[in-house]
Design goal:
The chain has 289 residues and is an alpha/beta fold. It is built from 13 helices and eight strands. Helix 1 packs across helix 6, helix 6 (131-140) runs parallel beside helix 9 and helix 10 runs antiparallel to helix 11.
């Protein structure tokens, strides 16, 4: 169960790309890979929208992505998975000082226990988990295959980057993600999301196909579904983090040609990285082949 929750935590921010508001000028070409140039950069950098975890049968990294990574000197993910302190922080995130059952009425606890059965667990097994770890279970609905058949998009890219002795970094800390999820989803809001498990399963299948086809029009249809995230939650999970990242990215790109790998929901929209970088004077264009 702990392994499953960790996988879910890694995937949940990828699931959150269902809530970004797409802009027409950001969906004029089907691509999840974008080149960043101009504004004083001596070499272009790249941003790749990822789907953090996929089943092996659905997993594919297109040649253009490998080519962009090969051209880059630096590889940057949302979190630096090579940093042991960050991995310890993720482990710490799993537990909470106060039990979940102590924060619920008897009736609410009974109801949650029934909901958790659909996730292959029960309240007793997760009672010491944090709200963020509980919320991570939602994302496991996006993984319709056994744990030994999943692949992590960023990890496959990371292996290549390390093999090529590239510099590796992260745009934020695990604590930043924990804070964002904690602010966006209270315990009761998390339970409400858990009740939408089947809806997540259906949406995830559609998103997987759209992601594989880089079909931004279909993604746009999916990401506007408000049932998974309201505007305030979007602010904490996407907008605020994007605004912080876009302040960090220019210096990283100035020092080295960089390949950024982030959840696809961070790319487009008025508050997406593409638009924010354009507003800073960069040329950001889709890489189609």
């Amino acid at each position: 169960m702990k392994t499953l929750v960790k996988l879910g935590f890694a995937a949940l921010l990828s699931m959150n790309f269902m809530t970004a508001n797409a802009q027409k000028n950001n969906t004029d070409s089907n691509s999840l890979l974008w080149e960043v140039s101009g504004n004083g950069l001596s070499k272009p950098s790249y941003i790749a929208g990822t789907f953090h975890i996929l089943c092996s049968k659905d997993f594919d990294i297109k040649p253009k992505v490998w080519n962009a990574l090969n051209k880059s000197e630096n590889f940057v993910m949302e979190i630096n998975y090579t940093d042991q302190n960050e991995m310890l922080a993720m482990q710490k995130m799993m537990s909470a000082d106060k039990k979940i059952s102590e924060q619920l009425s008897s009736a609410e606890a009974t109801e949650l226990n029934k909901v958790l059965a659909d996730y292959g667990t029960d309240l007793k097994k997760v009672d010491n988990h944090s709200t963020q770890a509980l919320y991570a279970l939602v994302a496991t609905k996006a993984i319709p295959c056994p744990q030994n058949e999943v692949k992590m998009y960023e990890i496959e890219l990371l292996k290549k980057a390390l093999g090529d002795k590239k510099s590796v970094g992260g745009l934020e800390k695990v604590d930043d993600q924990i804070y964002a999820i904690g602010k966006a989803y209270s315990l009761k809001e998390t339970i409400s999301q858990l009740k939408l498990g089947n809806d997540y399963s259906i949406a995830a299948k559609k998103m997987t196909e759209a992601f594989k086809n880089e079909n931004l029009k279909d993604l746009d249809q999916l990401i506007k579904d408000p049932k998974f995230m309201n505007k305030e939650q979007e602010k904490y999970v996407l907008t605020d983090r994007n605004n912080k990242w876009v302040e960090t990215m220019p210096q990283i790109m100035k020092d080295k040609s960089t390949f950024f790998a982030v959840g696809s929901g961070h790319l487009w929209g008025q508050n997406g990285l593409i638009n924010l970088l354009k507003s800073k004077g960069y040329t950001v264009k889709p890489v189609t082949q």
